[in-house]
Design a protein that fits this description.
Layout (H helix, E strand, L loop, with lengths): L8 E5 L3 H11 L4 E5 L2 H9 L6 E5 L7 H10 L8 E5 L4 H10 L3 E4 L4 H57 L6 H15 L12 H10 L12 H4 L7 H8 L1 H14 L6 H12 L20 H16 L10 H10 L7 H9 L1 H10 L5
């Protein structure tokens, strides 16, 4: 049993002063007692700080009866958990059931019997302290879980960036490409949340995981030979065929990582989708699987447009960057052939934001 200290605060509410005096005399040796004859005043006291640990509440009172007081206590977040014991001369069991249904913890019938009052009060205070201790313990556990989740997300983010930089270090053309494409994808995803074809997929959690996974889209380039990856000019047909294998190489590497963990991780699932399918085309002429239309994962459809736009407007070893307006026209021309029409429409609507991202994360000269 939990010891009941003298710091327990008890509010007595009864419109008969004699009852307040009797109860106060019974409880005051062990507890801090507050008393009022008004239901309105009782709500004020209960809402103050510190709140009472227990309320003994008369049912039959003028202006505001005990049922009404209890109902209002239960509607307020800061008073809803205060245990309430009804004081009543009523003997009808229906009245007792009504009070318990409203959230009363117990009943004490009048006339007052001191030993019974002390026993009921002790029981309710012990129960409250048990609940408070459990709540505090749960709060500590929740805080620790939140801290560990934040740590895991931070480690995950750092790991993703480290892996992505493996490809970035080998490909000197990428620069801030990872930051830009990540921002483009996030912009498209958040802008398409109300679209009927995307609403079910683009939940806040999905978008968060998608944005964190996006930098791994070209991780497979670590498997491309230097003479192809770093060639300062256009690739011939044989070289281009090898370059195209980076999509499968990336997906395979991520899949092998998935097999090393005991349970599926959403960010690895999306990263694998993006790495494998971001070069697929809406009309089915892309690679590596020749997927078409809705068969292409949503994540890859968004990355496809983001990746192409960024490649068009920024300089590469084999070409200069083009004006953003010309890049926009090329993206619009790919509507329904290279890109999902709805994604292109979103791009056109948010074009100014795309340009802002391109300029904000522009590569240093």
């Amino acid at each position: 049993m939990f010891p009941i200290s003298s710091s327990a605060r008890i509010l007595i509410v009864d419109d008969t002063p004699e009852n307040l005096a009797v109860l106060g005399e019974v409880l005051q040796p062990d507890h801090i007692v507050q008393a009022t004859t008004s239901g309105v005043r009782a709500l004020e006291i209960a809402g103050a700080h510190p709140p009472p640990d227990l309320i003994l509440l008369d049912i039959m009172m003028p202006q505001m009866d005990g049922y009404t007081v209890l109902g209002q206590l239960r509607q307020q977040p800061h008073t809803r958990d205060i245990p309430v014991v009804f004081l009543t001369a009523l003997t009808d069991t229906q009245d007792e059931e009504h009070g318990l249904a409203l959230g009363a913890a117990d009943y004490i019938t009048k006339p007052i019997r001191p030993a019974l009052v002390l026993a009921r009060v002790r029981t309710q205070l012990e129960a409250k302290r048990t609940r408070d201790a459990l709540r505090d313990h749960n709060s500590v556990l929740e805080a620790e879980i939140a801290r560990r989740m934040a740590d895991n997300e931070h480690i995950q983010a750092v790991s993703i960036r480290a892996l992505a930089h493996l490809a970035e270090i080998r490909d000197t053309d990428t620069g801030n490409h990872l930051l830009r494409t990540q921002a483009y994808v996030h912009l498209l995803a958040t802008s398409l949340t109300a679209h009927p074809r995307f609403a079910a997929t683009l939940t806040p959690q999905y978008i968060d995981v998608l944005a964190r996974s996006a930098p791994l889209h070209d991780i497979g380039k670590v498997g491309i030979p230097d003479h192809i990856l770093l060639k300062p000019g256009r690739l011939n047909d044989e070289e281009w065929a090898i370059m195209q294998t980076h999509a499968m190489l990336g997906a395979t590497a991520i899949e092998q990582a998935e097999q090393d963990v005991s349970e599926a991780l959403p960010f690895l699932t999306l990263a694998k989708e993006i790495a494998r399918s971001h070069h697929e085309r809406w009309d089915g002429t892309g690679y590596p699987d020749g997927l078409a239309g809705e068969a292409i994962p949503v994540s890859a459809r968004l990355m496809a447009l983001a990746d192409v736009f960024d490649a068009l407007v920024h300089e590469r070893t084999y070409k200069p960057g083009m004006p953003v307006e010309k890049a926009r026209d090329l993206i619009l021309a790919g509507r329904g052939s290279h890109f999902d029409p709805a994604v292109v429409d979103c791009f056109e609507e948010r074009f100014a934001a795309f340009v802002d991202i391109a300029e904000r994360y522009n590569d240093p000269t």
